[in-house]
Amino acid sequence: LISIDRDHLIHPVSSWRDQEEAGPRILHSGHGAWLKDINGKELLDGFSGLWCVNVGYGCKSVVEAATEQMARLPYATGYFGFASEPAITLAGRLAARAPGNLNRIFFSQGGSDAVDSALRFIRFYQHARGTPERRHVIGLARGYHGSTYTGAGLTALAAFHRDADVPLSWQHHIPSPYAYRHPGDNSDAAVTAASVAALKAKVAELGADKVAAFFCEPVQGSGGVIVPPAGWMKAMRETCRELGILFVADEVITGFGRTGPLFACERENVVPDMMTVAKGLTSGYAPMGAVFMSEDIYTTIRDNTPPGVAVGHGMTYSAHPVSAAIGLAVLDLYEQGLLANGVKAGEHLAHRLHALGNHALVGDVRISGMLAGIELVTDKMTKHKPDAKLKIASKLSSIGYEKGVLFRAFGDDIIGLAPPLCCTIEEVDLLCDRLTDVLDTVRDDA
Ligand code: PMP
């Protein structure tokens, strides 16, 4: 398997050279928060796959729902007047749980095409309103919004821009609400005020009537788990209203209980104009994403498209019935106690990780529910990042694997954790014990 992998399988995101040299770690099976590789090694998954397997592995009800749907009707188009029962039911249940009037739902195949779809719907909306000159879209530094051309452009991570000619001419970024490295006063109020001022300045620079929308993740994930200050999202939402631009929440990671409630927007009673989700929607059991839009955006596009004229957007696997059946089974689990368990486990995780703040290598601990970032420094006073020569990221991942714990390293200085919401308190303890052990080994090595 390793030699076939080296010869044929492209591993995006990682360095292709390093990946070919190291070969893959091949996973075989999973149960709850646990994975087993093909050599039988047991691993505690502290990252829910890629922050997606929120319900944990091997959930019988999910597998049964998928199997039943696959046997009965594996495929139905969501276009040309057709639909499937699970897609309709899922849309209805999600609309009932969505913030405010985000009543209209488009199902995509994952997060990147949910973001890409949202950008297209925003374009349709601006045309429908007669304001096509509102073309520009603003995101955040350290933001991640996917790998399609438009998603990668809205992303502000160097690896996603290299040799790709993005961001596109209409995509812009303002600084991230990154308190730990915020220059000067880094109180909640100062960091929030800086973001509000940066958004206003960017809109003024581009032209007050030239900007369509502001996109943000309620907690920035792939940029290093940056948790904005309390009140930040509400302030940004209000600023967008004041500026007459749309506020879009990319909840691909934060949705479905990752930060506690079903959607992170609920934490501050924020109602975005649009919301994108994926990952926890089907908990990794099958691909699916979604765009939620307000009734106003939907009806504006609908009412300005004459009868018989198509709104040309959609993919073959949009609203896939098997994914939708999985989505329903997963939603049942969230509603039947999994969200509550995630909140309890998240409180314990916060308690354990804050204690880790005393570790010599730990500069900052950021946590929101079952989503955490640990920033490593070699000097707590100067906040000096570990030298790249120490190769901390690859050490962390190999030592972690050896000790039976999976997490994600962002660069050489940030560890991300996103354990399944089904974790018991004992599993959270074991995860933190193993992580501490990994950090001790890396410290002794450095
Ligand atoms: N938006 C955010 C906030 C994400 O974290 C991701 C994936 N990590 C995406 C969009 C893209 O989703 P996908 O990988 O499912 O295409």
TrEMBL record:
Cofactors demanded by this protein: pyridoxal 5'-phosphate
Metal-binding found in the keyword field: no
Keyword Transferase in record: yes
Keywords for this protein: Aminotransferase, Pyridoxal phosphate, Transferase
Molecular functions per Gene Ontology: pyridoxal phosphate binding; transaminase activity
Stored InterPro entries: Aminotrans_3, Aminotrans_3_PPA_site, PyrdxlP-dep_Trfase, PyrdxlP-dep_Trfase_major, PyrdxlP-dep_Trfase_small
PANTHER family noted in UniProt: AMINOTRANSFERASE (PTHR43094), AMINOTRANSFERASE CLASS-III (PTHR43094:SF1)
Annotated family: Belongs to the class-III pyridoxal-phosphate-dependent aminotransferase family.
Protein name in the entry: Aspartate aminotransferase family protein
Species name: Komagataeibacter nataicola
